[in-house]
From TrEMBL:
This is Arylalkylamine N-acetyltransferase 1 isoform X2. Residues 88-237 form the N-acetyltransferase domain. It comes from the Eukaryota. One of its GO terms (molecular function) is aralkylamine N-acetyltransferase activity. Pfam families: Acetyltransf_1.
């Protein structure tokens, strides 16, 4: 089935805003495509200008100023890009409007990543990932859903100039389709802020674990309206 026909709200919203759904053959200056290696460095530049400074936990710890590089976060992003499941929305002239950095994870890989984190010198990065691993430790998704491997959206980022037009929702629809095509049954996201949580809820994700921000150190606590870090899961059908 066409992804947009699953969610009429999305297609009417994108039409109304002048942005056309990439799944329809409507006149459009934006399309969603797979991210090939020759665009990896452009994606990193996009993330430096948008995600590194704006994502709620990054913002709370003041990880980066807008446009600044961040070695550990770039390594994490590149490792995800290399897995080959990431998608980007681009204009006709190739400008990156938004990205969904998607990856897959096996139980043994999560454990290795957690021990690598202990070697990271960057204390702010370590604090963020300790929290992310903490919410993931609350529930064993592999045994709960009887699966060896999960699909996860690790980074959802829309350029400041393209926000509020349904683009993140379009990238999420596209990512769910990408996961399904690749044969995955369980799609997860560590949703750090109310907007990504809203997007996940709109697509039927359920919260399976959470850490209220009132319980975390104030140096890493995103301000309201963000209330909790949520581990959200959608079973793909
Ligand atoms: C969060 C982010 C990806 C949203 O992108 P976007 O393209 O503007 O989102 P959409 O237009 O698809 O909106 C999705 C939903 O979130 C809500 N939303 C998004 N940004 C909002 C804002 N600033 N204020 C209020 N609501 C907002 C929308 O109302 C919409 O819900 P609805 O369809 O029920 O009305 C974008 O703001 C961003 O890149 N932020 C920085 C990085 C980040 O925080 N990423 C998410 C964590 S991984």
């Amino acid at each position: 089935m066409h992804p947009c026909s699953l969610d009429p709200r999305l297609s009417s919203k994108t039409r109304a805003s002048g942005y056309s759904c990439p799944f329809h053959n409507m006149a459009s200056d934006l399309k969603v495509v797979s991210i090939q290696e020759d665009r990896f460095s452009d994606v990193i530049v996009h993330l430096r200008k948008n995600f590194f400074s704006d994502e709620p936990l990054n913002k709370a710890v003041k990880l980066c100023k807008r446009g600044e590089p961040h070695a550990a976060l770039e390594r994490h992003s590149l490792a995800t890009l290399q897995q080959g499941f990431s998608r980007m929305a681009v204009t006709d002239s190739g400008v990156i409007a938004g990205v969904a950095l998607n990856g897959t994870v096996k139980k043994s890989e999560r454990e290795k990543a957690e021990s690598r984190l202990l070697e990271t010198a960057d204390e702010k990065f370590k604090a963020i990932f300790t929290l992310l691993y903490g919410v993931n430790e609350k529930v064993d998704l592999f045994s709960t859903y009887n699966t060896e491997e999960l699909f996860e959206c690790r980074i959802l980022s829309v350029d400041e100039n393209f926000r509020g037009r349904g683009l993140a929702s379009t990238l999420m629809t596209d990512s769910m389709e990408t996961a399904k095509q690749a044969g995955f049954k369980v799609f997860k996201a560590d949703a750090t802020g109310v907007y990504s949580q809203k997007i996940c809820e709109n697509f039927g994700f359920k919260t399976v674990a959470e850490i209220p921000y009132s319980e975390v150190d104030e140096n890493i606590r995103p301000p309201p309206p963000h209330e909790a870090l949520k581990l959200m899961v959608k079973i793909l059908e």
